[in-house]
Amino acid sequence: MAENRSLFEFKQFSLHHGNPGLKISTEACLFGAWASLQAHGSCLDIGTGCGLLASMMAQANTACSVKALEIHPEVASLAAKNFELSPFKERLQVIQTDVSAYQPDIKFDFICSNPPFFTNHLPAIDPARHMAIHADHLSPADLAYSIDRLLADEGEFAVLYPADVLALFEQSLKNVGLYINEKVHVLSKPDSPVLRVMARGSRSKNSAPESSLPIKNEQGDYSPEFIELLRPYYIIFPS
């Protein structure tokens, strides 16, 4: 596998990313900041990649511990190296496994995932990239069943999906007695199509308020909402 790693520096930690696995995306950073507001207690990151979401949760809540699952051995090794250099390393653990085979001793208070989402696509050339972007290895139904199996009774979960794939995921959730309680539509700009949907849920069937969050404004500058969420993490945003 070709080496093409770079370093993404945040205010309190840094992550090597790229190959193996996918590069850190703006949407993933936004989702990590948003999801981390809810992180508490024992947390699980399904499909951690280089460890982005796990690291953001560990920074946001000093009382939480995070287990990070990654199916691909080389990507799991990369996450482990990132965690070893992290100031939060005592609260971070990467486990190289398929979530369907994971048998923890506890149920988790909070579960998050930025899962694969491409379906019916030609395979990616890079096998690590293929696993990261294709739903072959973790379909929406697989993720729903795994969250049901691993989530504490009063726990919450958060996912990031394209809108059409989220609809499939939501149907699978209902089959196991889980529900979406909030949706945030992520847009490039206020008048742009929806890029992704950040969704939060639990075992409680509540109303699901929907809102929109543009990454940038009409002038092409980062939006106030984006800046507020990423301020604790992005070096370019003063504290």
**Sheet with the most strands?**
8 strands, mixed
Rounded radius of gyration (Å)? 17 Å
The CATH C-level class name = Alpha Beta
Look at the structure and name the CATH superfamily: Vaccinia Virus protein VP39
Short description:
With about 240 residues, the chain is of the alpha/beta class.
Task: Explain the overall architecture.
The structure is a single chain. The protein is α/β, with parallel strands linked by helices. The chain has one domain (9-230): Rossmann fold (3-Layer(aba) Sandwich), CATH 3.40.50.150. It is 29% helix and 28% strand. It has seven helices and ten strands. It has helices spanning 26-36, 52-60, 73-84, 127-133, 140-150, 163-175, 224-230, and strands at residues 4-9, 14-19, 42-46, 65-70, 92-96, 108-113, 151-161, 179-187, 194-202, 210-214. It has an eight-stranded mixed sheet with strand order 5-4-3-6-7-9-8-10. A two-stranded antiparallel ribbon has the order 1-2. β4 (65-70), α3 (73-84) and β5 (92-96) form a beta-alpha-beta unit. α1 runs parallel beside α2 (52-60). 42% of the residues are buried. Residues 118-135 have low confidence and may be disordered.
Defining traits:
239 residues, alpha/beta, Rossmann fold, two-stranded antiparallel ribbon, 10 strands, 29% helix, globular
